[in-house]
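Q: What does the assembly look like in three dimensions?
Context provided by user:
Components: two
Sequences:
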Amino acid sequence: MSAPVAPVRLPLVEGGKSYHDITEDIVSPTENAPGTAWVIAFLISVVTLGFGLFCIFWTIYMGIGTWGSNRTIGWAWDITNFVWWIGIGHAGTLISAILLLFRQKWRTGVNRAAEAMTIFAVMCAGLFPLIHMGRIWLANFIFPYPNTRGPLWVNFNSPLLWDVFAISTYFTVSLLFWYTGLVPDFATVRDRAKGIRKRIYAFLAFGWTGKAKHWQRWESLSLVLAGIATPLVLSVHTIVSFDFATSVIPGWHTTIFPPYFVAGAIFSGFAMVLTLMIITRKVLNLQEYITVEHIESMNKVIVATGSIVGVAYLTELFVSWYSGYVYEQFAFYNRAAGIYWWSYFGMMLCNVISPQFFWIKKLRRNITFTFFMSIFINIGMWFERFVIIATTLARDYLPSSWSYYMPTWVEVGIFVGTMGLFFTLYLIFTRVAPVVAIAEVKSILKTAGDQYIGEKANDGDHKNSAH
Amino acid sequence: MKNNNQEVWVGISDKTNDPEFLEAASKEFVELPIVDTLSKEEALDHGSNRRDFLKYLGFGLGAATLAAGCDVPVKRAIPYVTKPDEIVPGVATYYASSFVNGGDYCAILVKTREGRPIKIEGNPLSEVTKGGTNARTQACVLSLYDTNRIQGPGKIVANEMQSEKMSWADLDTAVAAKLTATSQIRIVTGTILSPTTKKAIGEFVAKFPNTKVVTYDAISSSAILEANQQSFGEKVIPDYRFDKAKVIVSVGADFLGTWISPIEYAADYAKNRKVAKSKGAKMSRHYQVESGMTMTGSNADHRILIKPSEQGAAIATLYNEVAAKTGGTSINAPKVNAKAAKQLSKVAADLVSAKGASLVVSGSNNVGEQNIVNAINSLLGNYGSTIGFANASMQRQGIDAEIQGLIREMNGGSVDAVFVMGANPAFDLPNSNAFQAAMAKVGTKVFFDGLMNETGSLCDFAAPTNHFLESWGDAEPKRGHLSLIQPTISPLFDTRQVEETLLRWAGSANLNKNADQPYYEYLKASWTTEVLGQQSGFASGQAFWDNALHDGVVKVNRASNEIVYAGDVAAAAGKINQPVAGDGVELALYETVNIGDGKYANNPWLQELPDPVLRTAWGTYLSVPISYDGKNYTTFRNVGDDNQKGRGEKLDVTRGDYTQRVTALPQFGQMPNTVSMSLGNGRQIVGQNGKKIGSDTFPYCSLDKNGNTQYYAAGVEVSNIVEKVSAIPLVQYFNTMGLTSGQKKDFNVDEDILAFQGSLTDRTVIRRTNLDKIEEFAHDLKEERSHHEHLNDQTLYPYEAYKKDFYDQGHHWGMFIDLNACVGCGACSVACMAENNVPVVGAEQVAAHHGMEWLRIDRYYFGDVENPSTVYQPMMCQHCDNAPCENVCPVAATNHSSEGLNQMTYNRCIGTRYCANNCPYKVRRFNWLDYTTADIFPGNQFPINGEELVHGADNLTRMVLNPDVTVRSRGVIEKCSFCVQRIQEGKLTAKSEGRKLNENDVKSACMTACPTGAITFGDTNDKKGRLAEKLDSDLNYIVLEEINVRSSVTYSAKVTNKDESVDAIS
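A: Here is the predicted structure of the complete assembly.
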């Protein structure tokens, strides 16, 4: 295989790894006992998950009245968290599908974990539309299937129903995509494992033997799934935004929402990927696979999507003024200067102003700075959803019905609980599956940087191991 | 006949013993036919396979689910063994009766279902209440099923709700043993409207000649009675005719809400306030002189602010102004504040210009002041036109001095026995402490009321009377206007009517003790002997009685004397309350439409009904003034900063050594340096719903020189903020709209005050104008509406064609609401709760904005910031023909009927609340918690006031439920249905009678409850109906018309009749 000669391109994997090094480095976490840090993190996650489960039980047993939402503000933290989690998932799909189609090879270092994050985030997200129902025990009503209730059919006009399809499709495709990628890596783990582990991984690897036919089918399947997943990156959050855009509430009824939501989703997704990767690469010693180059690339995506989001915010403000319509004008005036001014301020600061620092290369490549920025952006994107949902509802058409919302301990508990769920799953994932796609990293080991002849060209011994 | 063996067969194969048939027959009940046909081959060849496995799995699961889910025991559904003639299951029966509670009166029709009274309607035959009702009347049916009622005679345990049970015979003996012919007995009672009750008491007095009846009203009009005694020689409340008055001046009389006969007055008042069309519009002008904004004041064209202690001065000033213009003698009058004095001069000019068609009323309880009011009306020639004595009101009869005299007597030890009926002096006197102490010195105390109270707990014996819905009785609210009370249910408990008890103790010969219903016979005898002669329609007693009982009301001729004014104004001027000079804070005390003097404190429907002005429920609140300097505003003691987050502050209000800590709320239109508080809450001995609610404010009242209670306190100390409150049951935060800044454009007070509230004034929610600009307004409105219509026509969806095909066919239900007629009383709101089984949620949940009301009355302000005008807007589901709630429901639980109804299918609802979010009118209500005890989970009900047995969880309270309306469980959305059950009932009636639906077949509960006719429900396709007539006005508008939801509710703009020159006075 003749590699493209790119003398200015830095290698995508640093440290001059050999194929065997890669296998060793990435598989070892699944083979060794977890460290103390992992155990502590896992315990904390499980405890928060447990508290979250209790809060969900409490909600279902006592009722939605245990939340702070009210006659005016029917949705608050529940749907805010839903949209936030769904948005976070988007980065994984973008990295694995769109970047695959665009042949962005740097994605191989992060796509596995990002996809896992997508799946876990969608699981957290999917929880909220369920538990925000007043009668969750009738949740089956939202699925169109032949039934004995008339039969009664769902309302295909409702964006909430579109959500059901969008999210279930998204979850299914993401899961398939992720698992497909895992199959050759599970085979690698299987080949190294013994006893019961071998049998489990043998099952998980679906009898993968690494035949050329396997690889060829695997490549095709990946491409097909990428093709299916690519429109999902755009469609899922577009449909989520329809929950608001198709309503009559000023501040919700906006045609800008679909692109604005998609950009925001990718923005927040990359921030979450960064948060996780920066910890993972450190804890699992994968700095050479998830490099500063990766971080910089993702920061570039962040500054791009962050700016799109910023433009969307400003466009909204302009259009509300330009509309000449009192309700629209007030809705945005209220967002910026109403009783929830602090959430709007938080959103602007975290989402629009802070990512602009990434125009500076030095900051883009600064891992500590990036880490804090990623947290910032996650907070900002949460605020964005809170601003759109709760503060808009709090002050709509009839001043007589204006209200105020504060979350109760139950709502906070459920949100924290989804964090617990997310991290519990993610921590398990880091112990049982290769967090970097071994096969894919191996495939790019020699295609991107081995012709590099610039500075630091002789770092490590990758020149030697390449031959 | 060939088939002799009685065999049953299904076809010819049956008879020919076809082998296939035989096989099939042998398998008939063995295998599932579907399995057999679908997988025949495989079934025969391989036994079970994958498909079978899935089928059996599916069947097994389904069967298990069915088996698990079908165990629904039916409880207590017992049919009649012998069905009573008048009861047809599923069909409501209406009985004419009267709601009477002390002086509160309303002629009613009681709707009963299967023998249970479940709803109150107004009796349109009554000339007093004219078919209207108020909130108290609507709520009285719930008090019948109050679990805290005293369940039988007994010995009272001090300070407890329970009593040691005894039998009536034992009680009779025990009381008789204590009474001798010379016993000094005092019957303490509120106003008694019933002539027959008075007759029964008369018999008791005849037996025990040292008995005296002490009548007093907690919120009294004794000064009017005494003043009329002095001015006219008649101790009555005259017949005020608000419908004949062109100029109305009320000095502190809340005549639309609480004063004397509010249903009657509101109906009369609204007649001259309604404006049908802009052309030739005429309406009365209403001035209100008061300190804090009352419901009546909020409806006035001008409010003149005075301190409570200036009331006498204001009346005297008004008198002098009127006298100067009409040639009366002037009096020495203390000075009212300068602004009010200037305004009163304008008022006087207006009054004089409407001489003979004006009306001055006052809620003052000072005899001097009421005498001057009489003098003013006399100068204006109002007697004989707007004020009459022929049909004088009996609705207040109490003289405050009598109860004060009783306290002295009791303290003197000269009282042997006290009977308490319909009164609670241990709570509702300014010196209730003194009464409590004096009670200890009385030997025998008998308590007759059905619900334990502070006074009852001091008594020895409970002789509980029936609820009025279980009673026979009569009432004479106005002279010559009689009405009957008939029972609509057998007594639920072991109670006995107080009249019967007294007659038994009196050993009356007129009472047939062995009769099934002794008092019924007594009453009937009394009517057929006495009342029969006073009327001319019927000759025979039985026919008269039957008719009277059927109609509920009877008009009789009563001789009345010629009335001549003979008042002494100069003497009266010397008796008025003197204004208190200085900067001391003054406290005005007022009665609310719901709790009254405290009698209604245990009724959760009334506790939950928000105060029309303050918009608070469940408690006592301190209204404090807001001052505004054109740029900034300040509230009294700087309270209210966090009101828009539902939080607030408490202040200590001290008069002498009496202090209460109450939540303060800024209130527009409150006189500077005064505060207001409502009376009635803060009850100590009361049922579970009234317990620990609000503060007792009666001790702030005082007595004047004549012993009349004064409902204000001049020298109160109000502390700074002492405590923060995290949640106030405040249903509407202080977001107002349309206050005029003096510039051309209206502006919003919050915008200025809080700097970030934004413009509310261009909102298409409230439309209003002044009478002098009405034609211009109507023109502008027409243009704006046609612009909105134009915008709404820009759609891709063929709405017009659809409308033609569907909504214009058959019925299309709609509603018209006259904002000018709505006085904000809340009768409709309570009627809606009663009709539609709307749950009560309690203070905590109201504070969380989880209230369930289907119909609310929004309150908005406009005009002067410090003293604005108010508009009330009843708001319920608008039944939009292009409803935004309908398309967003994922499970199609809310949908549109071909008759334009927005329907809610509770069974289908999964509770996403998307519809509520997307409702522009915010009228959809979610069952946040298990308020109705209808949930699938046990043990998660929400107590409304910390009670042990959750409200509505007991079978007694559940008897009030309307069986035609589903009780909603937790987790579903509900909202106004336009009383769809009434529409169905109307249709069925029409159908069974084989005729077209008549517009009177269907009336919504809010429409029938309204005393002023502000709500009209009907069929918009009925071009000759009552609704078509109302909809044809150029003052009509639709709320948020431009968003194209195509609401079915039309509002008529609010029109005020302001005189700009009065507003200009500063």
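Follow-up: The longest strand of chain B covers residues 712-725.
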